[in-house]
Q: What sequence folds into this?
């Protein structure tokens, strides 16, 4: 019999369950945070741990490694979860943590199932105090980072910041498809306040340095939750839009929303005055399945809207512009946001629906200093490199190079326009003065009258019906019929999906 070994196995597993011990667990709770095992219980339906015996043992005690990994189910779907245990050395790395983290990445990638990272700590090389223990230093490297990067093109990766996250932990957070943090509970930074003060002479609190207001506006995280429980709910919701891997198509859900539902409200939502904004998000609510719109990165580059949604139960990636911010113009940050989101859609075969009201790139000295045209051209490249089905609804403006990014023009895509459509190289307002500058200057005192006459002539050819007559836009539809037009398209789009991975691996 193996009774002594089985007793030792039981003892070690019980000690692993206690994590860093009662005192450190109490300290974790005192900060308002759950322990890693409480988080696993709240997030997963079932859990099977891998490597529970990894750690350091003495004759009397066993201290587990401060990362916990395993296979699980979330809403019935198979996943891999890797979580930092802050009660053991603040979640910082030790000799065992590297191998466990690498195995979790490899396990998810090779089993072709989503990966969820629960990050709480640095996840890096630990404190400089360890140098005396090691008797040496080392050249920095990130073990297993090839697996971290490879997974961006293989499986959905959702990363949650559930406490102060710095250094390599922060890098693991953002090297994901969707990142989530908890308001007031978590912070994300390259280095914490003490290191910033020592290295830069800048005294700053952790919320100011890496709190939710700072990092969500910077685009470091995509979603901000009010609690850990809400963060877990957002994780489940995001996963529900995405396939198990890049070799599968997105999961289609049952929908109680009528695919042929029309909305009279859409007929009046765009003002006749082209200078007046309106609520683009209301258009999203009225077009997609009720309650299905999940916006990502709302506080980052807010003139560009990116969201996950459903049409008759089919997941889609949604692009739009917010006329309430810069008139919906495309900024340098908005270009980055758009390119990353199109890459996400391409990786996981999400058809793209673009609700277009694009006046063009935001211009001026700040835009030039931000390298807007270079980053905007990168967004345009992402659009043209995409292969997923694409539908564009031209709601109002479509101008210039930024407007040309409303779809990949080298392949088929559904494109319909509303009667409010307005497009060209430049808007008449502003463009007229440039095009007729010499003529207006020569008109002298009659310049105002001449300008009005030119504007009237140009307005006569501005109608979207003139464009439709030349088949330069395929169809003009009643705005109320937008949802039926898109739900009819989405079934053909899903029938045409090619469930094969594409080499889009940018975080």
A:
């Amino acid at each position: 019999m193996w009774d002594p070994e089985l007793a030792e196995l039981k003892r070690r597993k019980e000690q692993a369950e206690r994590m860093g011990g009662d005192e450190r667990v109490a300290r974790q709770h005192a900060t308002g945070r759950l322990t890693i095992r409480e988080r696993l219980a709240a997030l997963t339906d079932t859990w099977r741990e891998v490597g529970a015996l990894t750690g350091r043992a003495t004759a009397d005690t066993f201290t587990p490694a401060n990362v916990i990994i395993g296979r699980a189910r979330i809403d019935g779907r198979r996943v891999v979860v890797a979580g930092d245990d802050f009660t053991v050395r603040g979640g910082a790395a030790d000799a065992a943590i590297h191998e466990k983290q690498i195995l979790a990445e490899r396990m998810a990638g090779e089993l072709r199932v989503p990966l969820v990272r629960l990050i709480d700590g640095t996840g890096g090389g630990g404190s400089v105090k360890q140098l005396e223990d090691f008797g040496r230093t080392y050249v920095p490297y990130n073990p297993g980072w090839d697996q971290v990067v490879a997974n961006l093109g293989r499986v959905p990766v959702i990363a949650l910041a559930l406490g102060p996250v710095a250094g390599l932990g922060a890098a693991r957070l953002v090297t994901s498809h969707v990142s989530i943090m908890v308001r007031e509970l978590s912070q994300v930074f390259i280095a914490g306040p003490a290191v910033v003060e020592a290295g830069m002479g800048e005294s700053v609190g952790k919320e100011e340095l890496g709190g939710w207001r700072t990092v969500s506006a910077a685009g470091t995280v995509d979603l901000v939750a009010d609690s850990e429980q809400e963060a877990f709910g957002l994780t489940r919701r995001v996963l529900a839009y995405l396939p198990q891997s890049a070799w599968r198509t997105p999961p289609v859900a049952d929908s109680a929303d009528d695919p042929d539902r029309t909305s009279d409200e859409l007929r009046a939502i765009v003002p006749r005055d082209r200078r007046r904004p309106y609520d683009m998000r209301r258009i999203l609510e009225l077009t997609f399945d009720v309650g299905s719109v999940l916006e990502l990165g709302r506080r980052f580059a807010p003139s560009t809207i990116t969201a996950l949604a459903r049409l008759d139960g089919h997941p889609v990636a949604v692009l739009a512009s917010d006329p309430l911010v810069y008139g919906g113009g495309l900024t340098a940050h908005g270009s980055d946001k758009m390119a990353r989101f199109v890459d996400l859609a391409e990786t996981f075969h999400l058809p793209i629906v673009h609700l277009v009201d694009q006046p063009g790139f935001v211009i001026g000295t700040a835009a030039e200093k931000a390298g807007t045209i270079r980053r905007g051209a990168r967004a345009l490249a992402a659009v043209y490199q995409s292969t997923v089905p694409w539908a564009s609804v031209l709601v109002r403006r479509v101008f210039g190079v930024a407007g040309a990014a409303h779809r990949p023009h080298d392949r088929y895509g559904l494109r319909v326009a509303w009667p409010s459509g307005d497009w060209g190289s430049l808007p008449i307002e502003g463009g007229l003065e440039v095009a007729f500058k010499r003529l207006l200057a020569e008109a002298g005192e009659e310049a105002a009258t001449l300008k009005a006459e030119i504007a009237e002539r140009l307005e006569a050819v501005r109608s979207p019906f003139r464009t439709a007559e030349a088949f330069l836009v395929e169809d003009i539809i009643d705005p109320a019929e937008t949802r039926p037009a898109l739900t009819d398209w989405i079934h053909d789009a899903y029938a045409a999906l090619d469930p094969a991975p594409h080499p889009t691996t940018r975080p």
